[in-house]
Task: structure prediction
Amino acid sequence: MAIETPAIQRSTRQLALVLAAVQASGREHPTAEAVFARVRRVLPRISLGTVYRNLQRLAADGRIGIAHVGGRSARYDPTITPRDHCLCEQCGRNEYEATPTPGGSVRAAKRAGHQVRGHALVLFGRCRDCTRAA
Amino acid sequence: MAIETPAIQRSTRQLALVLAAVQASGREHPTAEAVFARVRRVLPRISLGTVYRNLQRLAADGRIGIAHVGGRSARYDPTITPRDHCLCEQCGRNEYEATPTPGGSVRAAKRAGHQVRGHALVLFGRCRDCTRAA
DNA sequence: CTCGGTGCAAAGGGTTTGCATACAT
DNA sequence: ATGTATGCAAACCCTTTGCACCGAG
Result:
């Protein structure tokens, strides 16, 4: 009953470089623009549209994660395993990352019949440096 | 040294209705558009711009919360106290809400010198109804 | 009477998409 | 040779903003 084709994926230089750019960014969680800038250093003619398309594809394939935290632009994440993040409201950097301790909330959600596929814990505040600067 | 005026706030019908609309939405976490639609039933001439301005002001005053989860539009929250949410990826509803159990992550962040002002735990998955329908 | 809030409409920024071409298979 | 991925640019959507008028204080 599989009506739709598996949609095989061609391996292009652009796709590989977009993935590499996200992975190389470490815990920075780059925006699409940042990935664009990085890939451009190698492929000057790449377009922003292509970057978005590849980011979406990689996310759909579960190779990277997309996080919509606080700001207006999405951020892309090389790790797919659930992680907690700690964002600085001032400089926007991700200061800290750890494997999560979901605790009671996940259990409660499951009890409510929810099929939990993942979660994201985001902490808001100020990093050490910005606290000092203020 | 207070150069800027405290910026006193006039109470207008629009402001009151925007707040009421967010509060009346319960745990739906309405978008700006939804708030707009609701207030419009009472004040047909209100503009979307005014809704956004009042939502921002209410958030700045700590009277409502703003959540940027998953989708492209922001969602507004009548509760300011930290809460965990459980979003359905299919229908978008918030299925469940609970006071959080921050656990080790908050402690770890504080240890790293971070000034934690709040947090948000979002669970992704499918609600009971959508799981059945699929 | 004052000046902050409103309505309207246009601008803004991030993301998506249509189309002809280039290229992986 | 075939059809997918690309580059380019226009379209989209949500949100913000400039401006003249309105109305709370």
